[in-house]
Each structure stands twice: as C-alpha cells, then as structure tokens.
Write a structure and sequence with these properties.
Number of helices of chain B: 13
Radius of gyration of chain B: 30 Å
Number of strands of chain A: 12
Largest interface: A-B, 62 and 66 residues
Order of helices and strands of chain B: HHEEHEEEEHEEHEEEHEEHEHHHHEEHH
Shape of chain B: elongated
Number of domains of chain B: 2
Structural class of chain A: alpha+beta
Order of helices and strands of chain A: HHHEEHEEHEHEHEEEHEEHEHHHHHH
Largest sheet of chain B: 10 strands, mixed
Radius of gyration of chain A: 30 Å
Oligomer: heterodimer
Largest sheet of chain A: 10 strands, mixed
Helix content of chain B: 40-55%
Shape of chain A: elongated
Strand content of chain A: 15-25%
Helix content of chain A: 40-55%
Number of helices of chain A: 15
Strand content of chain B: 15-25%
Number of domains of chain A: 2
Distance between the termini of chain B: 27 Å
C-alpha cells in the first residue's frame, strides 16, 4: 500500500468533518444493531421452541381448560416421552406493572420436557418437598432481587378473594442458550389445586409434551386430537414452534415497522456520507487534476476516493458496533420487564459490518467516478 | 445591522445538493419521530375511546382485567338496584358481560389470532351509545347469533355478514356488523352473554364484568359508594375511561420508549449531518463572510445569519418529514393487547400537536447543528480570509 500515507493525509485534512462523518456512521450502525436486536426480541418465541415438543390447547379457546384426566391418556400414546401441564396464574406481585408470567407446573416431568431451562438438583429436590415452593427464572429473580429462601406474596383474584398466595423461592433456573426465557415463575400443581374454588379443580390450562423424535410430531398431534374429538373438551395440538409463530404474528407489523425505520436511516446515512465525499472531492478538483496531469491513471484516482470513503465507513462502522456491544446489555437491564431479553447476536454484528462496507463503497463511487471522468484541462483551469 | 434574509435563502439555493442532504437527514429523523409517536397515540386513543365517562365498570374486587373478573348473577341483581344508574322503559341500563378469546385465522397471514368475543346484554347499544349497527341487525337474545366489529370483519376470515361460522365450539350466524367509533370494540365480536356462557361451558350464573350507564358522569361517586359499602358485594367500581386508559399503558410506554430511543439516536446522526453541511457552507464561503465583515456587518450579525440559515434548513426538513408521514394517518395496523391476549386493531393518529412537536424537534436540531459553525464563521480573521482563495 504505497498510497496509504497519501490517503491518510487526505483523510485528516478536515478533522472536524472527518470526526462528524465517522460519527454519523457510528450512530447509524449503532441504530442498525439496536433495531436488529429489538426485531429479534419480538420474533424470539419461534426460534427457542423445540422441534420435538407439542403444545396441546383447548380447541375452543386458549383460555378454556382441559381436564387433568387427559394426562395419562396422552402418556400412553406411542412416541410420547414425557408430558407436563401448565396453568396461567396471572397473579400480581406488589403492583400491576411488575408483570412476569407465573405458571402452575407438574413437577414430575417438567425438567424432562424443558431440559434447556436448568435448575440444580439440590434446588429442585427442595422444591419438590415444599408445597409452597417456587422456581424462578434468573432474570425475574434479578429484577426483584429475590434470593433462595425468600418468601414472596403474589396476589391473585382466582380464589374470589384478594389474599396473597405465599411462595418460597426454592430455586433459580437458568437458560442454556442466551435466548431462553428466564422470566418465568413456576409453582406446584398440588398447591394450586388445593386452593382454587371447586369449579377450577381438575382443570389444566395446556399440556406440553416431549416426543421421542421430531419425526413423530404430525402423527402424535393427530392421535391426540382424534382421541379427544367429540368430547366436551376437544383439543388442538401443534408443534411448539407453530404455536409460538402464531403468537409472534399477533404482535402485528412490528418487524415491518422496524424494517421501514431501518430503511429510512440507511437512506439518510447514504446521503450524508455521499455528500461529504462529494464535497471533499469537489474541493480537491485541482489537486486530482494535477495527479492526472502527471500521469496517474483514471483507475488510481477512483481508487484514492474509494479507499478514503471505505476507511471512514470501516472506522465509523466498527465504532458504532462497539458502542452497541457496550450499550445493549445496559439497555437490556434498563428495559428489563418491558421487553423480552435483548441479545446482540454475532450475525447482527457481521451484517452491520457488511452494511458499513457497502455504504462506504456506494457513497464513494459517485464522486469517485466524477473525479475519474473530469477533464484535466478544465479542472486545472478552474481556480 | 442584520444581514438580509434573502442572502440565506439564496445561499441555501446555491448549495442545493448539500442543502438537500441536510434537509433529508432531518426529514427522516422527524418522520420516524412523528410516526412512532402517532403509533403510540393511536393505540392509546383506540383504548381510551372505548370508555365513556358516563359508564362505569363493575368487576370482582382486585381484578386487574375483565378476563380475571367474576360477578355472580345475585350480585348483578343487587347492582341493578343501585342508585345513580340510568333507566329506560325496559329497566336499568346495565349489561352483564362475559369475555373470551377465540382463535380465528387472520385474512392477512392465514394463521390463527385471538379475537375477543364478548357476551353482552341485548340492550348493550343503549349503554355503549357510540356503537351503531351499520349493516344487518342486532342479534336476537337466546340464539347463536353474532354481531361483528367493523375492524374484526376485515381482519379475520369468515366473519362476514350472513356467514355461518364455527366459533368457540358452536355454529353461529353473523347477523350484523357494528361500528364502535374507532374504539377497541371494533376488534371484537359480540353475542348474547347467556349463550356464550353455555357455548364456552362456563357456569351460567357467573359473569366477568358489569357495565352500567350512569345518570350523569357525576353520579359515579354515588354508585361507587353504594356498591363498595354493600356487604353483599365484593366489587371494584371504576370509570370505563380509566379502565381502558390503564389497559393502554404497557403498550404505549413500550412504543414511546422504543420510539424515543430510536428518534434520539437518529437525531444525533442528523445533527452530525447538519453540522457537516453548515461547516462546509462556512468554509466554502470564507471570502463572502470576510467581505461582509469588511463592509461593516458585526460578528453577531454573521452568527445570527448562519443560525437563521440552519434553522431554515431544519424547518424545511421538519416540514418535509411531517408531510411524508401524513399518509400514515388513519392507516390501520394491529397488535396484541397484553391485558386480554387478544388482537387489537388500531390506526396511526397524527394530530396537529404531534406535527408541531416534530417541527420543534427539527428546529432544535437546527440550532444544535448551526450554532458552532456560525460562531466559527464570525470568528474568522477578516484579513486572512480575504486574502485566501
């Protein structure tokens, strides 16, 4: 790179402009990473779902119950490895804005059905022995500063009174992958069944079952639904990913909105950089003409201009992504509870860098071609 | 003496390429800012419009939402006799309601989404007075007939007039389409509450909420005092408007926080762009500025003039951004209402106030982006600048 000194000398000619251009690049790439992270967070459900899990809900409505008596019938279906059942509790901890999902669980197979959410054996055994025990996800525990052994009151109107239910935190579960949901609160079916009014007894919200092999999904789902067809509680069985995907789609056009914003930002950025490059080329018209006059080829001139914009793009882009690496965990912490977990995936960083390089090339191209094509005589004559 | 404004207008025109870039940068930022705010505003407006100040909602004490409520038939009878409730020829204006969520395929994606179905009393149109049947007729009591909200009929497949649908485990005939004035009810499906309890296999004597029409907005307190002090009841009484305003809070906060963050980051980028444009404008015009100083314009006049120029660019950008997002006004989108797990259609709502905020935002960016270059322009040594090419 024998021209590197020349390129750098040109870069630093106007320091303020250099800083500003790098700055706008950094800002744009930071925003790009941020939007990508948010988009991921909204679409999360579908990619944490296990391919070997089925969700069974009431065919009529997701808020209608299914009898507990289905459990053993489901377990007898060939291909089913384990089944757990859940109820939505919908309780309130201190204030309505402290929302986190609470599920009633069947302790027997819970850990086999969702092996990606891990609890240590000690904690799990303590939970099994404790009727009022609860296992809570790491994010929720951190949000409310709960420790093992804490006693937590959660208000629910399910029993007809507003008395709080008391729980002991016996364990904290962690997700194996960063995208796993660490906000849930689990407690025992027996405790729930004991306290709810007569008309709720023996009713579960939904079943989650684990298959021996994902290939059995279609067959088992059909067997389950056929078995309970024409009963008062017909079922609807889907793979967990299909279930999650339909849930995600209900968020509406969030990804479209984010994409639209991203496009506006990208376009704006392209203009700002393109303009800066054009100005700096225009200012140096006579210089470039001298280069051409003393024998540099058109291609070399194009190379100078392109290299300059590429360097700006790379520095700015890296800076912005670095900022995102620092800021996203902080934002995730600040927004805990409002949004699903924000995770900056390496693929986002790679895509961001590619975008930066592309913008750098495109914005350098037009002024570069202009510089390449200018006629030496005219350019030299201009003062 | 001030430098004439026409100087700025002409120089903006003369450097039109850089001007356009700065204008577009600011326009993009203002556009995103206004669009996000109008989204939050529209969501909130939809839910707030769902409540009337002369209606009150009665739910089991402590219930955060209707979904969790439970009011027995005996309690409903007590509530009907309470003071403060408006009456007409057929008795008190009270609707005891049951709500459920039922999966119905969306027309747009073909996948299931949860539609909120509300079992109501046959006199509901006298209680929610803004609701009108626009096509077909009201359902008849005691039979499986549905009336469908204006948005629901366009969002879900099969919910069209005179169609027979399998829904919530029954066969229903859609007999009417209603317009609830852009409120959340437009995304709902209504039917007879007794029929819905039966079809959903719920106890026939339990409802989830009771909505009453008050004699006047002022009689709310009378009703509330009477119901909450009645030993036979264990209920909360809340104004309908307050209930729906509270429901909108999570989503509105989410959109506002996210939108605010995005707009703030974009604003930094746009200010950089404006700074760049103004700095180049200053450095390209060194001789002009020096000439003006030489013929007697004060440094402050130069600062002022450049600031005006930045503001001019910012104002054009802000106005352009506002105009660009105007077509969004009234555009319907939908999302999940976290409180009810059901799908809610709502429209972007751009108000003059939001537009004013957008332009103000642009002007702030103009000042921030123009001040430093303006000061630099005024601080340039006259003699050197005049001598330079």
């Amino acid at each position: 790179m024998k021209f590197s000194r020349l390129i750098f000398a040109n870069l630093f000619r106007k320091k303020v402009r250099l800083i500003l251009t790098i700055g706008s690049f950094a800002v744009a790439l930071f925003l790009f990473a941020f939007l990508a992270v948010v988009k991921d967070a909204f679409g999360r459900g579908a990619d944490v779902a296990g391919a070997d899990r089925l969700v069974i809900i009431n065919r009529t409505s997701i808020i209608n119950p299914i009898p507990l008596s289905y459990r053993d019938k489901i377990l007898r279906i060939p291909g089913v490895k384990a089944v757990t059942h859940n109820n939505w509790f919908g309780g309130i901890y201190q204030d309505e804005k402290n929302f986190f999902p609470q599920f009633v669980i069947d302790p027997e197979y819970q850990r086999q059905v969702v092996p990606e959410l891990t609890v240590s054996d000690d904690q799990w055994n303590a939970f099994l022995k404790d009727r009022q025990g609860a296992i809570v996800g790491a994010r929720t525990a951190e949000r409310f500063h709960w420790k093992i052994g804490d006693r937590v009151p959660i208000k629910s109107v399910i029993t007809g009174s507003t008395d709080a239910w008391e729980f002991n935190i016996d364990g904290i579960y962690h997700g194996k992958r960063p995208q796993d949901d660490e906000t849930q609160f689990w407690f025992q079916w027996d405790y729930f069944e004991e306290k709810v009014p007569e008309r709720f007894k023996g009713n579960v919200g939904w079943y989650v079952l684990k298959l021996n092999s994902p290939d059995d999904a279609v067959r088992v789902a059909k067997t389950v639904d056929d078995q309970f067809a024409n009963s008062p509680y017909e079922t609807r069985t889907q793979t967990e990913s299909a279930f999650a995907a339909s849930w995600v789609k209900q968020f509406g056009n969030i990804s479209f909105l984010i994409l639209a914003i991203g496009t506006v930002v990208f376009f704006t950025l392209l203009l700002v950089t393109g303009n800066t490059m054009a100005i700096s080329v225009r200012e140096r018209t006579s210089e470039l003409a001298v280069f051409k006059a003393i024998g540099y080829s058109d291609r070399a001139i194009l190379f100078f201009v392109l290299a300059e914009s590429l360097v700006i793009a790379l520095i700015g882009g890296l800076l912005g992504l670095l900022l995102a690496i620092v800021a996203v965990p902080a934002l995730a912490k600040a927004l805990n509870g409002l949004l699903p977990a924000l995770i900056l995936a390496p693929s986002i960083l790679a895509l961001g860098l590619a975008v930066a390089v592309a913008v750098g090339l495109i914005s350098g191209l037009l002024p570069g071609i202009m510089a390449m094509r200018m006629r030496v005589v005219n350019a030299l004559r201009r003062v | 003496m001030a430098i004439p404004l026409i100087y700025n207008v002409r120089s903006v025109r003369a450097r039109w390429t850089s001007t356009i870039v700065a204008v577009l940068g600011i326009a993009g930022t203002v556009g995103v800012f206004v669009a996000m705010l109008s989204l939050a505003h529209g969501f909130k407006a939809t839910l707030v419009a769902s409540g009337s100040s002369d209606n009150a909602l009665v739910m089991r004490a402590g219930s955060p939402t209707e979904m969790m409520g439970g009011v027995t038939l005996d309690s409903v009878k007590v509530i009907k006799d309470a003071p403060g409730i408006a009456r007409d020829a057929n008795g008190p204006l009270v609707t005891q309601e049951v709500v459920g969520v039922v999966p119905v395929p969306l027309i747009s994606t073909g996948t299931d989404a949860n539609v909120q179905v509300r079992g109501v009393s046959p006199n509901v149109l006298d209680i929610r007075k803004f609701t009108k049947i626009v096509q077909g007729r009201m359902f008849s009591p005691g039979v499986t007939e549905l009336i469908v909200g204006r948005n629901a009929t366009h969002t879900y497949s099969g919910l069209t007039l005179n169609n027979v649908v399998d829904f919530a485990g029954g066969h229903w005939t859609v007999v009417g389409i209603f317009d609830a004035g852009g409120s959340a009810f437009d995304s709902e499906v209504w039917c007879d509450s007794h029929v819905l309890n039966e079809v959903l296999k719920r106890p026939a004597t339990i409802f989830q909420s009771v909505t009453v029409h008050l004699q006047s907005p002022n009689s709310f307190q009378t009703l509330k005092d009477s119901l909450t002090s009645d030993p036979r009841l264990n209920v909360d009484v809340i104004r309908e408007v307050d209930y729906y305003a509270k429901q909108s809070r999570t989503m509105t906060t989410l959109i506002t926080v996210l939108g605010g963050l995005v707009a703030a980051i974009m604003a930094i980028g746009a200010v950089f762009g404006a700074l760049n444009t103004m700095y180049s404008a200053v450095s390209e015009r060194g001789r002009e500025i020096a000439t003006m100083r030489a013929v007697g314009f004060a440094g402050s006049a130069v600062v002022f003039s450049f600031l005006i120029e930045a503001l001019l660019i910012a104002f054009i950008g802000g106005a352009l951004g506002c105009v660009a997002v105007l077509p969004l006004n009234g555009l319907t989108t939908s999302t999940m209402n976290f409180q009810t797990f059901s799908n809610l259609a709502f429209a972007f709502k751009i108000t003059p106030q939001l537009l004013a905020q957008g332009v103000l935002f642009a002007l702030v960016m103009g000042v921030v982006g123009g001040l430093l270059p303006a000061i630099r322009a005024a601080a340039m040594p006259v003699a050197t600048a005049l001598r330079s090419l």
